[in-house]
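[SOLVED] Need 3D model of a three-part complex

Original post:
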Amino acid sequence: MRQPTWLQVEKRTSLSPWVVFGVSFAAIVAALLAAGIFFKAYGVSPLRAFQLIITGALGSKVGLAETVRRTIPLLLCGVGLTVAFRALFWNIGAEGQLLMGAMAAAGVALFVPMPEVLRLPAMFVAGFFGGALWALIPALLKVKLGINDVISTLMLNYVAAFVMQYLIQGPWKGPTARGFAYTDRFPASAVLPRIPGTPIHWPTLVLGVVAAVLAYVWVTRTRQGFEIRVVGENPDAAHYAGISQGKVILMVMLVSGGLAGLAGVGEAAGIHRMLLAPAKLSLGYGYTAIIVAWLARRNPLAVIVTSVLFGVIMAGGDVIKVSLGLPFQLVNVFNGLILFFLIGSEVFMRYKVAIAWRRR
Amino acid sequence: MEWQSWVVSTFSFMLSYGTPLLLATLGEIYAERSGVLNLGIEGMMIMGAYSAFVSAYVTQNPWIGLAVAAGVGCAFSLIHAFASITLKANQVVSGLALTLLGLGLSGVLGRTWGGLPLPRTLQKITVPGLSRIPILGPSLFEGQTLLVYITILLVPLLWFILFKTRIGISIRSVGEDPATADSLGVNVKRVRYLCVAIGGMLAGVAGGYLSVAYRPAWTEGMTAGMGWIVVALTIFAFWNPITGMLGSFLFAALYHLSFRLQPWMSPELLRALPYLFAILVLVFVSRGTLQRRMGAPAALTIPYTRGED
Amino acid sequence: MRKRFAGVIGLLALLMIGALAVSAAEYVPGSPLKVGFVYVGPVTDYGWTAAHDQARQICVDTFPWLETIYVETVAEGEEGATIDKLINEEGCHVVITTSFGFIWGTVDKAQQYPDKIFLHATGFLREPNLATYMADFYQIYYLNGIIAGALTETNKLGYIGAVPIPELKRHISAFALGARAVNPDAEIHVRWINEWVDPVAASAATRALIDEGCDAFAFTEDTAAVVQVAAENEMISFGHYSPMYVFSPEYCVSGQIAHWEAIYLDFFQKIYDGVYTANNLKHVDYWWLLQEEGVEMGCDPGMVINPAYEAQLKGIMFTDPVLGEISIYDLVMIRLQQMSDPGITFDPFQGPVYDRKGVLRVPAGCILSFDELTQMQWAAEGIVGAWPDEP
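Solution:
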């Protein structure tokens, strides 16, 4: 690559977390500055806009609650995806696994007789296995038949959504729903407790944080984690070392799908307290989590930070809608801009760019 | 008479709905064959739909609309090309970002363009002579637009280029083993840029077709996830234009049947039919050694840097 | 330093108390009114939300003391946070939630803010400060059905439905009853697309119905896709929600148009006059139809039937047991009058009415109650196709 002689570009040999954080932060700021152009075009002062977004997403109790409420499913799905991506299994199916988890939890909540005190734990278990089993299908397809993971996970998202629609419009439609496509509201024993005055269903949040820590330990400190990492970084070496790629894939997808299923339980039992149309239950969390996982550079612990970041972005989008009266589609533009700036900033993480004051 | 009318209607719909799918799939096949995964198809299609509608409305000429859509799709895809090829960024995320940008931008720009009918749309034509063939005639040669036939003609052309010409060899080698291709004098970057641009052009035209011919109006989000179907169809086609055509038409036929068969099967489960079918066909085909020859380009999603491993 | 600190704290406390006092204040009739609208979709759709927003604009133009703010594309489950913002940050006295799915958030917030007034579309739960409202089309669909039944040549009518909820089932059944009143051989073929906005799916469904032999189309979907596809195939259609005549002056015969402003103007005026307060809305439920002018028949405002079809409809004769031999055109006009006049003398669902399984749903001499109308699940005779959750 030809470079002007006053610009020194060196490949970095090590990557400190501070560099990652600093560069990413700078990228986001740059993106927001670019977004300022749009604000200007709508006659809104960019400074006022940013001030509103910050206070709206972080500076008030309501705003903070909204941010955390979005963070929860992103956290759970994101942790699961970092695990899957480590083994180079492109799980685009977190959305469908989330829906499956929600359905399993709803089934337990509404239709399975059991001692009331066991209901919530049973819902979490059912949700985990619902998502895990849905994830096992593409995993098995890849392992046994070599079917591409992107297409199988993507297709199953659609199937899961249609199954859910079938259930809420047919056999599971609630008598109290007056003919609308909803199940009955979950009984009190099947509803997740929230921090009072907020929509934050804290048990799922706790689960998410615990999952992030456990996943980190699992991937970096255990033998299975070692196998996962080898499969992902050097499949040939894995083969020679006798590591079964199939076993690894099944393992990571079980976890990835299960965690997404837990996110589904949270949305169904914590936020909506019933089952409703797929597009209303999940606001694309499974897809956004892909970006969350990527931004965390496949480090489960870092997902805690990146999922909060996206929670802020999503809550900020609401602020744009309400307080600024800007068209809501602008939120997508901002998300796209932020991502592109983050992508562009990757260059600075791989290469150290410095200005040589002396000609060489 | 019953089954014949089913055949005619299914084939006829297959062509009109399958054309945008096919166009975008052909483009993505080229992009992925050169090693670049572009998940921004939805964004390129919707920007194509928007720009085609606006320019067709203003100039009263749908073909100009399609041309503008091609240009807009191409320009959009170059953003992704710059990010993935020059900046060597993660292609999955770059594509997703492109989709978000496209959806958002088209939504914002298109706010005042909804609810307007397009005065002049692509004309429906009937191929003389051929349309008189029993059953096949009315299904395939009556009431379709010229773009449908152009697209079908593109298929063998693009197949030929990809598999039988030097350009095609360059493309495929860049996608399988860029290092070797580079050492043999192929300009990896240029080939990849070209293929992504082709993908963008075709995706733009596909979107434009929707807003100018299939449903001549603008509604935000009108592509309704078609871009993601194209991602799947590309894989389903094993990166070959001919099977891409078969896959697109099969999917379109199933989509049509999912509405016709409603009285007899649950509507929601019928809608899942095309997606399930895609997986089932893959299962069927993936048995045996057939799969090995038809895998993804080896260097797909991996950025290339000379002298670096 | 300490003194200044204490002073600042004291000032903050005063401000907070003041803010609380302001936000907890009930609206004083005769003073400027601020209303917040919570929309479920974008104002640029050509259907539900666009109609609400146009109504909002009409209110703003009519009442100088009215100020409004709207939030679009609010997802279900989000309405709570949005309502909080509208009340606390924007200072709204009244909040209007325009989708059934907002029901639980609206109820919760109504209970949380007893001094504010809430209005919930298509809802059925009310509080002293929460009223409900709906403008329904079923009468108009009956009239559209008469026209379709008279004009069809294949005796197959098509209906493209969004989501199988009672509102649509009621509309389709009314359409069927109207068609079969003048054409006992008419069949109404239904296809569901499971989305409120999906022009591509609506086009596909219309094509499927055309292939089945249908030649006249009514629908519920928030774009004009069906009208366009029908027109391409030279078949008639009935516009829905927004004026769709412009999409096909040749083939759009009539339709239904919503006039939410009728309800909003009434509601806001009553609040301004102090008739409606935050304490007496428990039994306020707008169920406005033709008579209250909450809805209008036609595919363009002021045009009940496309003039291009007037002559044809006047030429088709029908023998009604009560009215005698009259033209279809006159029949439609008479029925329209009967349902628009203050003393309503006709209802599409007046008995006897059988569902398509042969069960008697409305005995002779009766009409349907409000609950029966709003929770209708059965399908009228002549309807062909999938009907989720059919009793």
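Edit: The longest helix of chain A spans residues 116-145.
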